[in-house]
């Protein structure tokens, strides 16, 4: 499978070219093409801002004309902040990723075209393409950074590749302690709370126990975590034990001095 | 509807703070919080790189501690490139956007937490959060720029604004306590465990604290439940009601009778 080629038309800042290369690498893309980069090519600042994602830059191809840069591609989508007066279909990056995956699945070479920082794409550039990709930006602030636009589209491509079903809580459930282990924790806690006089008045004990169990159950603890919390209960209760012991000792000690006729 | 707060923990480069503000504006977010920005705040370079998206920067709030920066939020998700050994649920930005929308739909204040450029988030920071967001980057090049990570998450939030499938997490969020309430519970528990000599050996205290916080955080307690568990901790460590009161009364009563030279 050959991911989309990224084509930057008249990019101005080497930093953005490097940032685009970096995010291409993040999402498994590697073919970069530059049409008339303003400050020439190569430029060190591009490599500096790629943070080690050198290969898209090392192998970048430079073109004088956009027509030449897209010549070998079968499907090219133009990304613009503002859909033009055109009869091309307009997609979000998510929809565009589907379109691109369909084409790649049929062994077509595909590309995503981005305009320069200042002016974006001209209508003549867009007319070479097969569809328009528009990021759904807020009307109040439409100016999207070039590398960010590349990022969002590469991300959507990648999301289409990985397509991993990932149940939200799968991770937790995988290692969740069996119920008998969990109940052991509940019962230890409740026994200690009985001793501490926590369940008051007694007729409310069942509903209080229920509430504690529901909250702790939602934590979906592993066996290791249950063991840790059992240790917590023991540690806290021993602390209480010490307080009580001290008081009891004192009481015993003083008990002998209790005056006649005392309580 | 109040979009997520973006929290940058120990950001290093003002350019990235500005780029984050710009992309927040692109996708309709505006609340930015900075925890210990490396080079201080404000910094002109942030405004320069925001390209006119000044309002998130103008109104950015700066904090010394992450705990303070998230205190008023009810749901905070930590974005990390690499899911840690933790028992928090792990989501893609898309899944995370669903979770955030559910919470916001129930009038909860929510946030997305990002670590600094070099080191990302520490495990202790993540332990304050309720879930982990991981961008599905290519294994061969995982280093995602900070502002790009902000961009992808803000984009997914925006994509979810109009058209959104229901997430499974709703019931937990419904009445979830704000983080400052939750942190109050953690700190009470940890103080009591300190007294009880639970954290042993001392060098393991940070990881033990983290594990306890993660497990309790997953329970997604309501304020009422937090209050109940604070009562549980008090009862376990000091006893409650008759048991202790009776002994204490007795001790006080007898205290006046303490003999000279007594203990």
Automatic annotation (TrEMBL), chains A, B:
It comes from Caulobacter ginsengisoli. Belongs to the class IV-like SAM-binding methyltransferase superfamily. RNA methyltransferase TrmH family. This is tRNA/rRNA methyltransferase. Residues 5-155 form the tRNA/rRNA methyltransferase SpoU type domain. Its EC number is 2.1.1.-. Pfam families: SpoU_methylase. It comes from the Bacteria. Keywords: Methyltransferase, S-adenosyl-L-methionine, Transferase. The keyword Methyltransferase applies. GO terms for biological process: methylation. GO terms for molecular function: methyltransferase activity. The keyword Ribosomal protein does not apply.
């Amino acid at each position: 499978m050959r991911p989309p080629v990224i084509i930057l038309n008249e990019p101005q800042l080497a930093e953005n070219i490097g940032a685009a290369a970096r995010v291409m690498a993040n999402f498994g893309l590697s073919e970069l093409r530059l049409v008339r980069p303003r400050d020439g090519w190569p430029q060190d600042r591009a490599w500096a801002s790629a943070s080690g994602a050198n290969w898209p830059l090392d192998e970048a191809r430079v073109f004088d004309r956009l027509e030449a840069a897209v010549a070998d591609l079968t499907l090219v989508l133009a990304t613009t902040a503002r859909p033009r007066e055109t009869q091309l279909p307009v997609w979000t990056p998510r929809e565009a990723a589907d379109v691109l995956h369909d084409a790649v699945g049929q062994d077509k070479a595909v590309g995503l075209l981005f305009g320069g920082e200042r002016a974006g794409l001209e209508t003549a550039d867009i007319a070479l393409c097969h569809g328009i990709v528009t990021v759904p930006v807020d009307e109040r602030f439409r100016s999207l950074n070039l590398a960010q636009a590349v990022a969002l589209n590469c991300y959507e491509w990648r999301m289409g590749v990985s397509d991993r079903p990932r149940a939200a809580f799968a991770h937790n459930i995988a290692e969740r302690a069996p119920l008998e282990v969990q109940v052991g924790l509940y019962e230890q806690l409740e026994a200690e709370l009985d001793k501490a006089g926590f369940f008051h008045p007694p007729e409310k004990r069942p509903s209080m126990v229920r509430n504690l169990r529901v909250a702790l159950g939602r934590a979906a603890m592993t066996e290791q975590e249950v063991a840790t919390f059992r240790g917590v209960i023991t540690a806290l209760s021993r602390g209480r034990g010490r307080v009580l012991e001290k008081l009891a000792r004192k009481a015993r000690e003083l008990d002998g001095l209790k005056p006649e006729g005392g309580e």
